Amino acid sequence: MASFRATGWDPLLIIAQIIALQAVFYLLISVLLLIALTLTGSDFILDAIFDDTAIRTDTAFGWTLALVWLVNNLVTIPAVVLLIQRARLVLDFVVTLHGIHILLVWSHTGHFPTKLAWWVLQVVDAIVITLGGEWACMRYEMEPILLGGAKKQQQQQQQQQQQQQGSSSDEGPLELEDEDQQQQQEMDAETWVHIKKRKTSDPVPKSNRKRDDDEPAPLTRVMGQAKNVLFQATNKQKYEQIPMKDVHNEPSSSSSSPATRH
């Protein structure tokens, strides 16, 4: 894309733009006329471009030239955007383009162009190029301007995306393994959350909980309680129930012994 200089008035740049636009305009019309005339079986001559009498409405050759000129207008719009790039300058350059073309036609034919069809075609050409060029230049001016750093970052991002796409195409099985690992981690996380919810929802405090291995079975617990009761009952009978004969015999024996001695 052409770049503008800092100063508002630059004659060298303006002259270069006029010459470039005029050259591109004639190059495009020459290529289109060469294709059209070759398809119709006619020879390519300069009168098809620089002769006002060639544009006629009563011959097929005249209508062919008019159609080629209209197509050339549409093809010239990108060249206007490329070389001018300012919507407010499009009209000046288009008028200059057709003014130079009138002078070249005058110099080639030797008389000032007077054909009505030719003038109508030139006016239509100027209107189409001006409107299309201004619209395209406005769209170009509204695009965001990227600085040097932003352009580099954008290029780096594009390169990274391309590398990632290339690596993804080469490492298909690795991606499947990564997906399996992610699914396993998600399942582990879900089970951990479920266990944590069960722990938090338990109403029994932690201090009163006992492990299932330490708690005795119900039958063992009942048998232990019965054993304790029997043990206490037997000890009570052994130490609290003393035979009365033993108690009465001891003092009698002690009292009889001194009597015999006397």
TrEMBL record:
The protein's UniProt keywords, in alphabetical order, are: Golgi apparatus, Membrane, Protein transport, Transmembrane, Transmembrane helix, Transport
Bilayer topology annotation: Multi-pass membrane protein
Q: Which parts of the sequence are annotated with region: Disordered?
A: 151-262
Give the stretches traversing the membrane: 12-40, 60-83, 90-110, 116-137
The Low complexity compositionally biased stretches are: 153-165, 252-262
Which GO terms fall under biological process for this protein?
Golgi to endosome transport; Golgi to plasma membrane protein transport; protein localization to Golgi apparatus
The Acidic residues compositionally biased stretches are 172-181
Q: Which family does it belong to?
A: Belongs to the SYS1 family.
The name this protein carries in UniProt is Integral membrane protein S linking to the trans Golgi network-domain-containing protein
**Organism (species):** Syncephalastrum racemosum (Filamentous fungus)
Give the organism's phylogenetic lineage: Eukaryota, Fungi, Fungi incertae sedis, Mucoromycota, Mucoromycotina
